[in-house]
Amino acid sequence: MLGCQANWQKKVKVDKQLFDTVKNAVVNLQYDDRVFQYSYTVTPYLGKIETNWFRTHKGEVKIKIICEVDENNYKVHVFQQLLFSTSQETRFAKSYKAKIENQIKEKIHNEENSE
User: Fold this and answer.
1) DSSP state of 52
2) Beta strand pairing call for 73-81 and 61-70
3) Using alpha carbons only, how large is the chain's radius of gyration in Å?
4) pTM of structure
5) Which residues contact 24 (CB under 8 A, 6 or more apart)?
6) Which of these, 57, 68, 60, 56, lies nearest to 19 by C-alpha position?
7) pLDDT band at 11 (very low <50, low <70, confident <90, very high)
8) Which residue did the predictor score with more confidence, 16 or 58?
9) Which H/E stretch holds residue 21?
10) CA dihedral 11, 48, 45, 114 (to 10 degrees)
């Protein structure tokens, strides 16, 4: 079986509306004028939205975002690339995580109030 790769990742049941809300929060970051070299991948059957390592803060800081949606729950992970490792505890990682989570919460709150 040389050259054969199996994907053992299990498909997850994803709430489409929540998935779209999380995806839009991640996509909207590309319009921030402090973000450079931004791209992302969306894998709906795994409930995953992931960015590449993009640059921010004058190009000096590298950030990566991974969002996971499972049924009616979501998780946002933001990493900053350091010299020899990555961390979720830096000021930049925390601020981007808060920015995304606030957008998601605001959108969910607005949808609930419009019903």
Assistant:
1) -
2) antiparallel
3) 16
4) 0.84
5) 103, 107
6) 68
7) confident
8) 16
9) helix 16-27
10) 120
* Residue 10: partners with Cβ closer than 8 Å, 6 or more residues away: none
Q: Where are the domains of the chain?
A: 16-114
The structure tokens listed for 6 are: 């199996």
Count of residues in the chain: 115
CA-based nearest residue to 69, from 23, 4, 10: 23
Please tell me the predicted confidence (pLDDT) of residue 86: 87
Task: Kindly report, residue by residue over 57-91, the tens digit of the pLDDT.
Answer: 887 899 999 999 998 999 999 999 998 888 989 99
**Rounded distance between C-alpha atoms, residue 12 and residue 49, angstroms:** 13
Whether the CA torsion 94, 98, 104, 105 is positive or negative: it is positive
